[in-house]
Write a structure and sequence with these properties.
Blueprint lengths: L1 E2 L4 E2 L42 E5 L2 E5 L12 E8 L2 E2 L3 E4 L4 E5 L7 E9 L2 E2 L10 E2 L7 E7 L4 E6 L11 E8 L2 E2 L3 E3 L4 E4 L7 E10 L2 E5 L6 E2 L5 E5 L3 E2 L4 E8 L6 E4 L12 E3 L5 E4 L5 E10 L5 E11 L3 E3 L6 E2 L4 E4 L1 E3 L6 E7 L5 E3 L5 E4 L5 E10 L5 E11 L3 E6 L3 E3 L3 E9 L5 E7 L5 E8 L3 E7 L4 E11 L5 E3 L3 E6 L5 E7 L10 E6 L11 E4 L4 E3 L12 E5 L13 E2 L9 E2 L13 E5 L11 E6 L21 E5 L1 E2 L2 E2 L5 H4 E5 L3 E3 L2 E5 L11 E2 L4 E5 L12 E4 L7 E11 L7 E9 L19 E5 L5 E5 L5 E6 L17 E3 L12 E12 L5 E8 L38 H7 L4
Parallel strand pairs: 3-11, 22-28, 30-37, 39-46, 51-52, 59-61, 69-71
Antiparallel strand pairs: 1-2, 3-4, 4-8, 5-6, 5-7, 5-9, 9-10, 12-13, 13-17, 14-15, 14-16, 14-18, 18-19, 18-20, 21-23, 23-26, 24-27, 25-26, 27-28, 29-32, 31-35, 33-36, 34-35, 36-37, 38-40, 40-43, 41-42, 41-44, 44-45, 44-46, 47-48, 47-56, 48-51, 49-50, 49-54, 50-53, 54-55, 56-59, 57-58, 60-61, ...
Length: about 900
């Protein structure tokens, strides 16, 4: 009795081989693939490139480039030294700089370094090792080229050191001097112009600048010219960018100082004369002329007042080329579609003015005179030519002729391959778009009632072909929206209707009862979606043999694949196990049921239930999906046994399960078992021990492919302790069977709740052996029991000591007598759930009422993780892989064994 990813199996069992039934992959772009786009989770930063390293004494400057952040801002770096290849203690730094000093000791040896970036997702991979650190020097001195004083500030400009010593400059240190005495230094980022603050008015200052790297601070520059705050000339330049061959004017402005002033252009290592064609009047502040050469010209303007005090400022004068209109391929226009095209200009001096010099734009399309944006909604097809003029700030112009083509409004025609299909079948759609050029995509909508997006597909050569499925029973109305990428058109198609007919077995009754310990209205029925896609439950009719009818109201959402919809009457007694999706006691006023007896809705008194799809326009004539009962018309194949009197114990009719899925052979009597919490003859019918554990649409999902159970001790056989302990029964005492396993979360998210549900067990009047097995009679009679202790400790064959959780049955199972089919146990989980890759050890304890071959299986149910793929139901088009978010190809673990594997598979299900 061993659990595989699909369900528990016999000792030594291995997962069965995949089904040989071919599975056709879904067509690219299938509508069912149109799941909501989820934001990508942040990842650890990328690997930095190889860093550089240089040393000076016992300090090493390590510098690197910032790597890709991968969705989360880098918050720091880890720098790891290696001496002769052996890692030393790492240093951690914030992310403000990418050059850091690391202290080494001893200084001898070959030192290399790696760098790793850190963000909220963790520490990324380390970079390759740097080359061995080589000796480095401090940077040389900068050179001050301009200084001008304000009232309490001074503006300095300088040039960078000619040699940074091999390590990037990270800061500059500015030191003010008063009468040769150094004042408090100010540190600025690695810029070349900065303002010194906090100076005293009417005091004469000189300044020096020194460059700082990770290895230290280099020598100071030569001192600047002296300036006196609030007294020396305060110089600035006000001038625009210029255009070649256009008249230019700028002004050097002066505050403070004593006139008259003398203006000049001071030569420096980074500046020269004014741009060719411009000149400075030495007796006035004007810079005038007609520039002749494009470029950027650093210029230092120097002003000396009547008392010989001076000030200077560094500025950059930009001379642009003549303006030239640049137009990419002009967009194609379409009648009724928003048109937009931005024109750009190279050269020239802003601001620019745009105009139509000749010709005309398409009707209702205009040119924005400020930004050159052509926009509007064309009303008439045709070809339109216009001369567009741009004029810059100096009146220099450029004219370009453009041509805009506007095509006729697109017509979108939608057609289908088949207007009548089985629910769940794929439908072929074709979209033709014309008469003009069509590029872009079409979005398919189901437009009956609320418009629902089913998928988006590309348009190729004016056509789109794709497949989708009808989301509703009966008449489905479809339309597409064409979104053009070449004309911005948004156009809807005609609508087409497709009739979707339900297929028997696509909805299955998995559990039901029409009377319980709470009385005649202690009733419920669980309807399982056995189709390949989410099933609309609105309008589905639940009919009882006595004429009672319950119609699920239109407010209910579609039922996911592999989930059940739970309908319960007034005195439903299992609310603690599963809340009903449709509580009938509160709903008579909604008109969703035909009341036969009493003032409230019921599920009928006796005889069974059936489910009818709303796939026809005539009420009461829809396809019968499933039936389970003893009255003709309310069963398939053979009927269930009829009660001679109403049972007085907890009871249900429950559908058997194989490999995690409801059994559907088309024979009601073979598919169902009558279960009670006491067993024996109840209501005149032999019962197996089991419990009513219904599922609702929010209940745990069977996730055998994601939560896997394996042997507790893989070093010994499945039949050896501690994996299995067996005590045979005697004529005077029961035997005992204990199965111990390890459950592993193979999902990518934590499981917030995990349950085990018995799906097959050799017991009196219970389920038959699982398909593909052939245990030899006599068959053992097993009953699930609560263990004496909650945990046990074992030493495994590899020496590890582990704790095993001995699982106890969840209510409504009763001990004694025990549990069987549908009985459940909840696994104790750590705080926050069972994480990805997490494991949990558990055991199941059974009493052996009689000796013989035995079998058993359980399903793993969970909340908090994605559901697994679910096998498809039989439809008109078979063997097609499902691509909806709730369905997929038949998992290997759920497939039945091939005929040539049957013998080995059967042997694995047998035991003493």
């Amino acid at each position: 009795m061993v659990s595989t990813p699909a369900s528990a199996r016999s000792p030594g069992d291995a997962p069965p081989a995949a089904s040989t039934r071919p599975v056709k992959p879904a067509a690219t772009g299938s509508a069912n693939a149109a799941d909501p786009v989820r934001p990508k989770a942040a990842r650890k930063p990328a690997t930095p490139k190889r860093p550089k390293a240089g040393k000076r004494g016992d300090l090493v400057a390590v510098s690197w480039r910032k790597p890709a952040e991968n969705g989360s801002k880098i918050t720091g770096y880890v720098v790891t030294p290696f001496r002769n290849g052996k890692a030393q203690a790492p240093s951690r730094f914030d992310a403000s700089q990418t050059s850091r000093a690391v202290k080494i000791s001893p200084t001898s040896g070959k030192w290399t370094f790696t760098v790793a970036a850190v963000n909220d997702a963790g520490t990324g991979p380390a970079s390759p090792h740097s080359k061995a650190a080589v000796p480095m020097a401090l940077p040389t001195a900068p050179a001050i080229v301009a200084v001008t004083a304000g009232t309490t500030t001074a503006l300095l400009s300088w040039i960078r050191p000619s040699d940074d010593g091999g390590s990037p400059v990270t800061q500059f240190v500015i030191t003010p001097y008063i009468n040769g005495a150094a004042q408090a230094a100010q540190v600025v980022p690695p810029v070349t112009t900065a303002t010194v603050t906090g100076l005293t008015p009417a005091v004469t200052y000189t300044f020096t600048v020194a460059a700082r790297t990770a290895l230290g601070t280099g020598p100071e520059s030569a001192r600047s010219a002296p300036v006196t705050t609030a007294i020396s000339p305060s110089v600035s330049y006000i001038g625009p960018e210029g255009t070649v061959n256009a008249a230019y004017m700028g002004n050097v402005t002066v505050a403070n100082g004593v006139p008259p002033y003398t203006w000049s252009v001071a030569p420096s290592p980074i500046s020269g004369d004014l741009p060719p064609g411009l000149a400075l009047n030495p007796l006035s502040p004007a810079v005038t002329g007609v520039p002749t050469t494009v470029g950027q010209y650093p210029v230092v303007f120097r002003v000396v007042d009547a008392d010989g005090r001076e000030g200077s400022v560094l500025t950059v004068i930009t001379i642009n080329a003549r303006p030239q209109i640049v137009v990419p391929n002009l967009a194609l226009g379409e009648v009724g579609a928003a048109y937009s095209q931005r024109l750009t200009v190279l050269g020239g001096t802003p601001p620019f003015t745009w105009s139509v010099a000749a010709g005309s734009l398409p009707p209702s399309v205009t040119l924005n005179t400020v930004n050159g944006f052509i926009a509007g909604t064309p009303t008439t097809a045709g070809t339109y030519g216009a001369d567009i003029r741009v004029t810059d700030a100096f009146g220099v112009t450029d004219v370009l002729q453009i041509r805009i083509v506007v095509q006729a409004r697109s017509v979108v025609a939608l057609s289908v391959d088949d207007a009548s299909v089985n629910f769940g079948d794929e439908i072929g759609f074709t979209v033709d778009i014309g008469p003009g050029e069509a590029q872009g995509s079409v979005s398919l909508f189901s437009s009956a009632g609320t418009r629902t997006l089913l998928g988006t597909f590309p348009v190729t050569r004016n056509r789109a072909t794709f497949t989708s499925r009808a989301p509703d029973f009966g008449t489905n109305q479809f339309e597409v929206r064409y979104d053009s990428t070449n004309t911005n058109a948004v156009v809807f198609s005609n609508t087409v209707n497709v009739q979707a007919t339900g297929v028997a077995g696509q909805a299955l009754i998995t559990q039901f009862r029409q009377s319980g310990v709470g009385g005649p209205l202690d009733q419920y029925v669980s309807i399982y979606n056995n189709s390949p896609i989410p099933m609309p439950v609105s309008g589905i009719r639940i009919e009882a043999a006595d004429g009672t009818i319950v119609t699920i109201p239109p407010t209910r959402l579609p039922l996911p694949v592999g989930q059940a919809f739970l309908v319960a009457a007034a005195d439903y007694s299992l609310g603690a196990v599963a809340e009903p999706d449709l509580p009938l006691a509160a709903d008579p006023v909604e008109g969703d049921c035909t009341v036969v007896v009493g003032p409230v809705c019921s599920l009928g008194a006796v005889g069974g239930l059936r489910v009818r799809f709303p796939d026809t326009d005539t009420p009461g004539t829809g396809t019968i999906a499933d039936a389970a009962g003893s009255t003709p018309g309310f069963y398939r194949g053979s009927p269930l046994p009829a009660f001679t009197h109403t049972p007085t114990v907890r009871n249900i009719f429950g559908r058997l399960r194989e490999a995690g899925r409801p059994l559907d052979t088309g024979n009601t009597r073979a598919d169902f078992r009558f279960l009670t919490t006491t067993g024996g003859i109840q209501g005149g019918i032999p019962s197996a021990i089991g419990t009513g554990n219904p599922r609702n649409a929010d209940g745990p999902r069977i996730v055998n492919t994601l939560l896997q159970t394996t042997l507790l001790d893989s070093g010994v056989s499945a039949s050896a302790a501690p994996n299995r302990e067996y005590v045979a029964p005697t004529p005077t005492s029961r035997g005992q069977l204990i199965i111990r396993r390890t459950l592993t979360n193979r999902a990518s998210t934590p499981a917030s709740q995990i349950k085990l549900r018995i799906s097959s067990l050799s017991e009196l009047n219970g389920p038959p052996p699982p398909a593909g097995t052939s245990p030899r009679p006599p068959y053992a009679d097993l009953q699930w029991r609560n263990p004496a202790t909650l945990t046990s400790t074992f030493t495994l064959s590899d020496g590890r000591t582990v704790t095993v959780n001995n699982l106890r049955m969840d209510p409504p199972s009763e001990d004694p007598p025990g549990g069987g089919f549908y009985s459940e146990a909840t696994l104790p989980l750590p705080l926050g759930g069972l994480p990805p890759g997490g494991t949990l050890n558990f055991s199941l304890t059974f009493s052996v009422e009689s000796a013989g071959s035995f079998w058993g299986a359980w399903d793993v149910l969970a909340l908090g993780i994605d559901p697994p793929a679910v096998a498809t139901a039989a439809t008109k088009r078979t063997n097609r892989a499902q691509v909806n978010g709730d369905a997929g190809v038949v998992p290997r673990e759920l497939a039945q064994p091939r005929p040539d594997q049957a013998r080995a598979h059967r042997q694995r299900h047998e035991s003493n």
